[in-house]
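Suppose a colleague, Dr. K., hands you the sequence of a protein chain of 125 amino acids and asks what its three-dimensional shape might be. Before reaching for any lab equipment, you can write down a predicted structure in C-alpha coordinate form. Begin with the sequence itself:
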Amino acid sequence: MRQVISSSDAPKAIGPYSQAIRVPGMLFLSGQTPIDPATGVMVEGDIAKQTERVLENLKHVLTAAGSSLERAVKTTVFLKDMGDFGAMNEVYARYFPNDPPARTTIEAARLPRDARVEIDLIALA
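The predicted structure, expressed as C-alpha coordinates, is then:
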Protein backbone atom coordinates (compact mmCIF):
# COMPACT_ATOMS: atom_id res chain seq x y z
CA MET A 1 0.00 0.00 0.00
CA ARG A 2 1.24 3.47 -0.92
CA GLN A 3 -0.29 6.68 0.46
CA VAL A 4 0.45 10.28 -0.49
CA ILE A 5 0.91 12.59 2.50
CA SER A 6 0.67 16.37 2.35
CA SER A 7 0.45 19.25 4.77
CA SER A 8 -0.90 22.72 4.16
CA ASP A 9 1.58 23.85 6.85
CA ALA A 10 4.49 23.02 4.51
CA PRO A 11 5.20 24.47 1.08
CA LYS A 12 3.24 22.96 -1.79
CA ALA A 13 5.24 20.83 -4.18
CA ILE A 14 6.73 22.97 -6.96
CA GLY A 15 6.91 20.07 -9.39
CA PRO A 16 5.56 16.60 -10.08
CA TYR A 17 6.29 15.06 -6.68
CA SER A 18 4.57 14.51 -3.34
CA GLN A 19 5.59 16.03 -0.02
CA ALA A 20 5.76 12.50 1.37
CA ILE A 21 4.84 8.92 0.65
CA ARG A 22 3.84 6.40 3.31
CA VAL A 23 4.45 2.71 2.76
CA PRO A 24 3.86 0.14 5.51
CA GLY A 25 5.87 1.31 8.50
CA MET A 26 7.89 3.99 6.67
CA LEU A 27 7.64 7.59 5.49
CA PHE A 28 9.74 9.03 2.68
CA LEU A 29 9.77 12.83 2.66
CA SER A 30 10.81 14.83 -0.36
CA GLY A 31 13.50 17.44 0.10
CA GLN A 32 12.30 20.64 1.70
CA THR A 33 13.80 24.02 0.97
CA PRO A 34 13.43 27.15 3.13
CA ILE A 35 10.16 28.31 1.62
CA ASP A 36 7.70 29.90 4.02
CA PRO A 37 4.43 28.02 3.43
CA ALA A 38 2.37 31.07 4.41
CA THR A 39 3.88 33.27 1.70
CA GLY A 40 5.40 30.84 -0.78
CA VAL A 41 8.58 32.92 -0.60
CA MET A 42 12.09 31.79 0.28
CA VAL A 43 13.12 32.78 3.80
CA GLU A 44 15.73 35.50 3.64
CA GLY A 45 18.74 35.34 5.89
CA ASP A 46 21.68 33.20 6.75
CA ILE A 47 22.02 29.43 6.71
CA ALA A 48 20.75 29.17 10.30
CA LYS A 49 17.41 30.81 9.43
CA GLN A 50 17.08 28.76 6.27
CA THR A 51 17.90 25.49 8.07
CA GLU A 52 15.32 26.23 10.75
CA ARG A 53 12.62 26.84 8.11
CA VAL A 54 13.54 23.59 6.32
CA LEU A 55 13.32 21.56 9.52
CA GLU A 56 10.01 23.20 10.46
CA ASN A 57 8.66 22.27 7.02
CA LEU A 58 9.78 18.67 7.48
CA LYS A 59 8.25 18.60 10.96
CA HIS A 60 4.87 19.74 9.58
CA VAL A 61 4.84 17.01 6.94
CA LEU A 62 5.74 14.41 9.57
CA THR A 63 2.95 15.68 11.82
CA ALA A 64 0.46 15.38 8.94
CA ALA A 65 1.55 11.76 8.61
CA GLY A 66 1.16 11.10 12.35
CA SER A 67 4.91 10.87 12.91
CA SER A 68 7.61 13.15 14.30
CA LEU A 69 11.26 14.12 14.03
CA GLU A 70 11.98 11.66 16.85
CA ARG A 71 11.05 8.85 14.44
CA ALA A 72 13.46 10.00 11.73
CA VAL A 73 15.95 7.31 10.72
CA LYS A 74 17.86 9.03 7.86
CA THR A 75 18.33 12.50 6.46
CA THR A 76 20.24 13.88 3.54
CA VAL A 77 21.41 17.48 3.80
CA PHE A 78 22.29 19.34 0.62
CA LEU A 79 24.29 22.52 1.15
CA LYS A 80 25.03 25.17 -1.44
CA ASP A 81 28.31 25.85 0.38
CA MET A 82 29.99 23.32 2.68
CA GLY A 83 31.38 26.35 4.52
CA ASP A 84 27.87 26.63 6.02
CA PHE A 85 28.17 23.18 7.63
CA GLY A 86 28.91 24.40 11.16
CA ALA A 87 26.03 26.86 11.36
CA MET A 88 23.62 24.37 9.75
CA ASN A 89 24.78 21.68 12.16
CA GLU A 90 24.07 23.88 15.21
CA VAL A 91 20.44 24.34 14.16
CA TYR A 92 20.11 20.70 13.11
CA ALA A 93 21.34 19.55 16.54
CA ARG A 94 18.52 21.51 18.25
CA TYR A 95 15.94 19.57 16.23
CA PHE A 96 17.60 16.19 16.88
CA PRO A 97 18.96 16.51 20.45
CA ASN A 98 18.80 12.79 21.31
CA ASP A 99 19.70 9.81 19.17
CA PRO A 100 19.82 11.75 15.87
CA PRO A 101 19.11 9.93 12.62
CA ALA A 102 21.78 8.71 10.27
CA ARG A 103 22.79 11.54 7.96
CA THR A 104 24.61 12.31 4.75
CA THR A 105 25.68 15.88 4.01
CA ILE A 106 26.86 16.96 0.59
CA GLU A 107 27.61 20.19 -1.23
CA ALA A 108 25.37 20.68 -4.25
CA ALA A 109 26.24 22.98 -7.12
CA ARG A 110 22.76 24.50 -7.18
CA LEU A 111 19.56 23.90 -5.26
CA PRO A 112 15.99 24.81 -6.28
CA ARG A 113 15.34 28.56 -6.19
CA ASP A 114 18.97 29.06 -5.17
CA ALA A 115 18.30 27.84 -1.62
CA ARG A 116 21.31 27.50 0.66
CA VAL A 117 20.01 24.20 2.11
CA GLU A 118 17.64 21.36 1.29
CA ILE A 119 16.96 18.33 3.49
CA ASP A 120 15.07 15.12 2.76
CA LEU A 121 14.10 12.59 5.39
CA ILE A 122 13.07 8.99 5.97
CA ALA A 123 11.12 8.16 9.13
CA LEU A 124 9.14 5.44 10.81
CA ALA A 125 5.43 5.89 10.21
